[in-house]
Design a protein that fits this description.
Chain lengths: 358, 358
């Protein structure tokens, strides 16, 4: 669920096309919903959420198409790319319910908005329950509709056959990653492998590798192309998540737009936390255990935690890991059997995404 | 989400086949999950849930196949039928989170089970939150995997093409129905049409019509067959839900296996409640408003509510509505262009399901 800065050369046009597909799809659903006397808020929430975002996954999907030799951006490829964005809306809505987040992309989250909307005549607890239930169902609809967008994309039987198993894998992978994330939160351990596994499933595969694979499969990619995409995507995706972990702790809230204490208060099982616990002396370990995941963490305690994360060497080790992965990804591109334009896109993405400050 | 008694002639064999498909699928997932070091509980919860149930939707799917002239029960049809059962597991898991139900099919619900499983070292609130998050994610996986079972069922491109839009509609319909159900709960009104709409979407279409349509589409059904299936399915499905509403209020807990106060405490916007509110005098209306949806409702108050629901004539009017719909469904069968065996199956189902006591 990591947000990354993107700047592919022709990305503005593609973003506009993806937005047009999503709006057209939701307009159709709005018409159907009105006939069924369904509350308009269902569509409005999805329209607002799907209207935003950096469109990273759609951009990667089209880059995968081009990497496998596809030319231009045919309508069907754009529609598949848009289906990934609807799937992402599903992920965000359920994620926000699970974390009970208050805001997303500068607006109230879906469950908060609907708790307010349906709050009249209900007590606080009942309103929160209705808000969460509505958000679970709107997320379910977004998941179902991401399938519908894919099914109606106008693919050939061969394309559908190639893409469906990859979409199925992507769904399971991000859900597995989230499951590990949710069940380990609040009690980080020294297990760096487990933390990397979470990063791989919930970010590297979901955000980078599978969108590339899906686009490539539409162009009938060979196994060699799929492997070369993975060789690039997995290190770069892990590096994204590692950068995100650092920004969540050391970032400037004015730049990241994210309350800087949230990550520490949640006490997610990150590589940063695992390395710090490994390297801490007795006093440091005691402080990490007491403060990581403390819901009442204040600014002073957070400042102390940052000192410990730095003093143990965990922070600089994570920077090293990002550097290693960036080098690995760029080397994979050197050897990749993609057309030069696709390689240039991916190289550009790597640079802008890993050096980001938000 | 209505449970109904079923007794199709050759149903035992089909139930066993569906169970075998689901077990085989989950065995495969368990192997994969172990390799990824995913907690075994994810698969175990689905195995336990998908192992139970009356298999109504799979039975109807195969009946739809036969109604449209399909013969026997080919492997691919059984696999599609099994995918409906995995989808149903998704519905039940999210439904139980939304209602915060404690038990399902005689066992703790998924979110309760996982709150306990992950509760060690966490406070009650944190454990409940983790349990709910895990259940949301396992429900998401069940939804994704229902798609995977369908995609890998071995259908021809023409079959896949015919079935995907129906599956997409089924998903949206039950989610819409649940959305109306959740947002109207606790404040029933006199709007009988709205209550019938909820029954139609969350039960009649989801439980009866779409499984029949999906099976029929696999056999290349004509529009006339689809229409004849709807003419049967919608009245019988509404009648199912109306019967369920009556059993939820007047049923014997020892027979229904359901705490008899739950429905009254939730104050769902049912046809029964809407009719009672329409027909109530001032005192009765006051009591209905005060007691329907009261979380602290006791046995004495429940007994009074039952008296009011009976005295207003709402109870007998719902019985009339069930009778009318049963007659309508049976007449639709008289005119239906199905093979005699399929008609006999559907006739048998109508009788046993609408006369049920649990």
């Amino acid at each position: 669920m990591t947000a990354v800065a993107v700047g592919l050369p022709d990305s503005a046009a593609l973003r506009a096309e993806v937005t047009a597909v999503l709006e057209g799809f939701l307009d159709g659903k709005a018409g159907g919903a009105a006939k069924l006397r369904m509350p308009a808020e269902v569509i409005e929430c999805l329209r607002d959420l799907a209207g935003g975002g950096k469109r990273l996954r759609p951009l990667l999907c089209v880059t995968g198409w081009q990497a496998a030799g596809g030319s231009g951006t045919p309508e069907a490829v754009v529609r598949v790319a848009a289906s990934l964005e609807m799937f992402h809306a599903f992920c965000l809505i359920h994620d926000d319910v699970m974390d009970d987040s208050g805001s997303r992309r500068g607006s109230p989250t879906v469950h908060r908005r609907l708790a307010l909307h349906h709050g009249q005549g209900r007590g606080t607890v009942a309103a929160e329950r209705v808000g969460a239930s509505c958000a679970i169902l709107i997320g379910d609809l977004a998941l179902a509709w991401s399938g519908e967008l894919l099914h109606a994309a106008g693919l050939t039987p061969a394309q559908l056959d190639a893409v469906l198993p990859l979409v199925d894998d992507m769904r399971s992978e991000v859900m597995y990653g989230q499951y590990l994330d949710v069940t380990t939160a609040g009690r980080p351990t020294t297990d760096v492998d487990q933390a990397l596994r979470i990063a791989r499933y919930k970010t590297a595969k979901y955000t980078i590798e599978r969108p590339l694979h899906i686009g490539a499969a539409l162009a009938g990619a060979t196994p060699a192309v799929h492997e070369a995409l993975s060789a690039y995507a997995l290190p770069v995706g892990e590096a994204f998540q590692l950068r995100d972990d650092l920004l969540g702790v050391f970032g400037t809230p004015e730049v990241t737009g994210k309350p800087v204490l949230d990550d520490l208060r949640e006490g997610k099982h990150t590589v940063l936390a695992a390395l710090a616990l490994q390297r801490a002396d007795r006093n440091q370990r005691r402080d990490l255990r007491a403060l990581l995941g403390s819901p009442s963490l204040d600014e002073t305690e957070a400042a102390h935690l940052r000192e410990v994360l730095t003093a143990t060497g965990a922070r600089s080790e994570v920077e090293n890991m990002i550097h290693t992965r960036r080098t690995q990804a760029l080397r994979a591109l050197d050897a990749a059997p993609f057309p030069p334009a696709a390689i240039a896109h991916l190289r550009h993405l790597t640079g802008s995404a890993l050096a980001r400050t938000s």
